[in-house]
Amino acid sequence: MQGNFVYNNPTKLYFGEDAMKHLTKELAGYGPTVMLSYGGGSIKKNGVYDAVVAALKEAGKTVVEDPGVMPNPTVEKLYEGCKLVRDNNVDLILAVGGGSTIDYAKGVSASAWCEEDPWEKYYVNQGWPSCKIVPVGAVLTMVGTGSEMNGGSVITNHKAGFKIGKVFGSNVFPKFTILNPRFTMTVPQYQMVAGFFDIMSHIMEQYFAGTGDYTTDYIAEGLMRSLIHSSRIAVKNPQDYEARANIMWTATWALNTLLKCGKPGDWEVHMIGQAMGAVTDATHGMTLATVSRPYYRHIMRDGLPKFVRFAQNVWGVRPEGKSDGQVAAEGLDCLEGWMREIGVVMHSKELGVNEENIPAIADATFLLDGGYRTLTRDEVIDILRQSM
Amino acid sequence: MQGNFVYNNPTKLYFGEDAMKHLTKELAGYGPTVMLSYGGGSIKKNGVYDAVVAALKEAGKTVVEDPGVMPNPTVEKLYEGCKLVRDNNVDLILAVGGGSTIDYAKGVSASAWCEEDPWEKYYVNQGWPSCKIVPVGAVLTMVGTGSEMNGGSVITNHKAGFKIGKVFGSNVFPKFTILNPRFTMTVPQYQMVAGFFDIMSHIMEQYFAGTGDYTTDYIAEGLMRSLIHSSRIAVKNPQDYEARANIMWTATWALNTLLKCGKPGDWEVHMIGQAMGAVTDATHGMTLATVSRPYYRHIMRDGLPKFVRFAQNVWGVRPEGKSDGQVAAEGLDCLEGWMREIGVVMHSKELGVNEENIPAIADATFLLDGGYRTLTRDEVIDILRQSM
Questions:
Q1: Which of A37, A234, B82, B192 pairs as cysteine with B112 (C-beta 3.0–4.6 A)?
Q2: CB-based contact B229 A213, cutoff 8 Å
Q3: Is B219 in Cβ contact with A222 (below 8 Å)?
Q4: What's the CATH code of the domain at B130?
Q5: Is the pTM of this model over 0.90?
Q6: Residue A84 belongs to domain spanning
Q7: Residue A343's closest CA among A202, A234, A255?
Q8: What's the ipTM?
């Protein structure tokens, strides 16, 4: 824990089966016009939409409907949302959905009143908002991204061939989020499992970096162990409330800025996975799974002590009579075993990756230097080939 | 993770060797008059006072001096601080010191403009503020209580023979805290070690409760392991920045409301320890140490699975060929071994506890029902005797 840092996370979380009962009161703190942003309409089937609309009515709000936020929200949709906010002078964006919807809402929040092109300003050039920020509230219905308590916003520009994440400051974090584990139980198994791996990846990206002794790494180990335990229960019985609740809570803490405090982070798996997603439109968590499998084998020797620790503290690998390399490799065996057990996609060819589009994915991959090894383009291509 | 809860912790933390550089800018957000609350003057010897006053000057503030906050802040001092705030129309209370000073500042924050008697209203009757709250900022110089990022405020009434904690809501949390590990390095070894045990106790009070599977218990195990690791380094070399920084960060997360989310908590060790402190004026962390030793042996059978888990996950006790009771007891042996290793006071007779004042301590002890066993007064007396 050596570095200087600021921790400031003002998002208010309402957690549990009764969490929705707080929404009407919370809405009272904002102006009369609320933009209701959501995805493909699954919330209309599971009752969440009705519950949210009832709370909005009870709070006396004017509702601006903003449906159709797609799994990898596009820059075109971002512009559309900005226009809706301006045309209706929206006071609050209420995002109901998973990480894509909340990522999108944060993008609109910082972009609606932005004088410049937000794609260029925030995503391409990683600039900071100077305009009025439209507050965001959230009702989470899919677990994984951690978007409910951070400043992250990933937007895809298909024309440019890029999927880029911007991490906004705490003024763009959701002001509040409703976290009801029951709302996540109608998510299809494939999406649920992709979310589980997304959580694991968020923790590993922050864990596998730095050579110091960091309190947050101990917290990360605890979060991974909780996730591994509860995910094994949830894939067998998605209706297990305790498991789903623990996973929901783990997801929030996996990426709400705590784990990065005072230490470097890697994020290369996300860079490759996001590039894969931009080219194939595959589900985010599954891209991370197929990349992680070869990536961690590739960098293991560069951060060996941490991989040894991972094996022992997360997976309970016994070190007696083994070399560090053996212990570390055994830890990665355990990781892969768990991935198979919960049913993530192991091979990126199933996601649409092939010899033809690998160069495009490699070109769209940002090469970061925070982890144990800074990759070259050739190494990215190797990893992509092995991911197939 | 079964319960409903609200998590809302808006305290902004500036952490690291350079953290003080943020103070002047942070002060700009408050009105012109700042009450500077601190303890016995150690901050005048180690340069912290000068640094704070320089920042206050740079920010153009009028300073109201409020020295002399004692280790167990008294209700008389609380009244005195309230009068100072009212007489000077204070805009911000800047608490520079350890938990006692920040606890006191929060008490004054909620009490200065309170129409009723704050001791009766907040501490005896556990009521909620309805008056104007004076914002609190903090510069932490001693680690342990977690007061820097929560609503806790413990006040002692010697006349009544009570030391009572009130946990205020997030409107009374410090608005910001400066956490510079170097500021904690001049604390005498005795106080430093007492702080280490206070941290451990905060975690254990929340860990040893509830029978469900809770993500926060996994986080708690991580925090305990980090504390055990770093405290062993710090007692040998108090100038080890990494160890002191990790401990400072662990202390904050041990008691900033995260670990209690969605699960019950015990806090009986604090109840007995605070009663002991009210009668003997002993150092808080040391009272907790002497009570914990017999207390956890006493309740071990009532929460056996958690004690088994504690032994394995925190201390690495191997279960093969042992009964659960043996494993659990071995975990408590490890806890005691660590206590001796870091040098906490093991016997309360060294703190002034004797056969004569045990009944008074027992009478001042609140009996709580959140843990694995609700004690009777007779059991408290037994534990106090064994603590000697």
A1: B82
A2: yes
A3: yes
A4: 3.40.50.1970
A5: yes
A6: 12-184
A7: A234
A8: 0.95
